[in-house]
Write a structure and sequence with these properties.
The chain has about 160 residues and is mainly alpha-helical. The protein folds into two domains: about 100 residues, Arc Repressor Mutant, subunit A; about 30 residues. About 65% of the residues lie in helices and about 5% in strands. The chain has seven helices and three strands. Strands 1-3-2 form a three-stranded antiparallel β-sheet. Helix 3 packs across helix 4. The longest helix is centred in the last third of the chain and has 31 residues. It is globular and about 50 Å long. It starts with 11 loop residues before the first helix and ends in an 8-residue tail after the last helix. About 15% of the residues are buried.
Amino acid sequence: MDESRGAHRESAAKWISVLHRQFQMYLNRELKPYGIRSSEYIFLVNLYEKDGVSQETLSRNLYINKAATARAIGRLEKLGLVRRTRDAADARAYAVTLTPEGMKLKGVIHELLRRWRETLETGLTEEESEFMLRAIKRMSANALALVEAARKDADGEGGTDDDD
């Protein structure tokens, strides 16, 4: 960090964390009637974009470890929203597909996400919203690079998978 910018200036990470917690509370409240938790909705959203992918692909696309993905998909399966079937190409892998019940929630979830986005963007110009999105994407890429570099360093030293 450039020292001239101030070592003690306010961190965007703090406010991103606040937004994340508020978003989780919003989703938990709004999705409670459907039995879905904030930690699970993102798998449905990903499947709405591309159905029939493997659990491993979901983990990779969402930067979520395999164990957490398996738990979430298992819970969504118990709710009757997704189905896991052995992948024909790889018997060790599961393909995850939406059920008709899972598809019925697509409109509900997209409406919740639209309302959240519009709430966040209230009072911002379109240019400000676009800039914010570009900046957050860049910050996410920077954070991912840092985490990946640290993981590679830890792997070289016999470290463990710590992405819970």
